Amino acid sequence: MSQKEDELIHTFNGITFTTRSSPELLKSLATFEAREDDVLLVSYPKSGTHWLAEVIMHLYDSRAALTSPIEFGDVSKLDQLNCLSCKRIIPTHLDSNMLPPTFKLKQCKAIYIVRNPKDIAVSMYHYYRENPNLPTVDSWSTFLDIFLKGDVVCGSWFDHVLSWEKHRNDNSTLFLFYEDMKRDLPKVVKKVSAFLGVNTNESGINEICKKSSFSEMKTNTEKENHDPNHTVCALTSNRKLIFRKGAVGDWKNNFTPKQNRMFEETFNKKMAFSEVAEHLVYEY
Ligand code: A3P
Questions:
Q1: Whose CA is nearest to atom 24 of ligand 1?
Q2: In whole numbers, what is the pLDDT of the chain averaged over residues?
Q3: Is the CB of 125 within 6 Å of ligand 1?
Q4: Is the distance from the beta carbon of residue 23 to the nearest atom of ligand 1 less than 6 Å?
Q5: 88 lines ligand 1 (CB under 6 A)
Q6: How remote is the CA of residue 224 from the centroid of ligand 1, in Å?
Q7: What mean pLDDT comes out for the span 60-86?
Q8: What is the average pLDDT across 237-262?
Q9: 23-41 pLDDT per residue, tens
Q10: Which atom of ligand 1 is found nearest the CA of 54?
């Protein structure tokens, strides 16, 4: 990595962050005062965060504010969040151990979206190539190596899921799967609305599904100008980098049989006791 590229990232608590998350902000997160009605939108990057954010914001229909990720920005971030008087939907890619403790103490609702990590690896590889805030990677095989080691921004996918899985049986945490959203979005929207306690009828749900389709979101984004407050990913402000393929199973176009074996080996070792891993859909 060149010296200039080295300046794009730093390590905090053993996890790689981009310099868009300042060390001072990360340190001050511990002091953040959550409110009972905050909703956390939690994900490892490339899991479908923007998609779920779109669904949630249509459900609230302007009765809540979608903030930028809690870990994005400098130390003034917490004051900015404190100034918002309305209900806050707060996205984050933070590992559960780094979450401000008041979220758990106040039993704030959290929705965690999971996606097949093979598809995440491919999506993140493209993100690394397109996103000027991330270091360059030479090739897909180099990237896959660092992904499996957890040497990428936001750390290891495996550790991230496992850290949040500890909250799987809390009533305040809902786990959703990208693949379920692809298969039956209305069902997932209903589940989210019940979890959040937001009233919606059948036609409202159909309308939300239409507005949050991949093609609709991609087209709308292409018409917009960049708005730094408009992404829910701490790694870019450019929404145009988000909507790539929106498919399940793209990993098959990228993994060699040997890479697949290597991935499965790490997966089976790391996720041996994970219930979330059992629910992941690799094929259909
Ligand atoms: P791909 O790179 O595989 O296309 P995040 O929002 O967490 O950064 O995740 C981005 C991934 O979600 C990208 O995956 C993107 O295309 C996909 N995505 C975004 N909106 C989507 C939608 N409405 N339907 C399906 N996939 C979507």
A1: 214
A2: 94
A3: no
A4: no
A5: no
A6: 17
A7: 95
A8: 95
A9: 999 999 999 999 999 999 9
A10: 23
In the chain, what are the domains?
8-279 (3.40.50.300)
Tens digits of residue pLDDT in 180-209: 999 999 999 999 999 999 999 999 999 999
Asked if residue 233 has its Cβ within 6 Å of ligand 1, the reply is yes
Is 50 designated active site? Answer: no
CA of 79 to the centre of ligand 1 (A): 30
Q: Ligand 1 center to residue 241 CA distance, Å?
A: 10
C-alpha 148 – ligand 1 centre gap (Å): 21
Quote the pLDDT of residue 282: 60
The identity of residue 48, as a single letter, is G
Q: For the full predicted model, state whether its pTM sits above 0.90.
A: yes
Q: Is the CB of 212 under 6 A from ligand 1?
A: yes
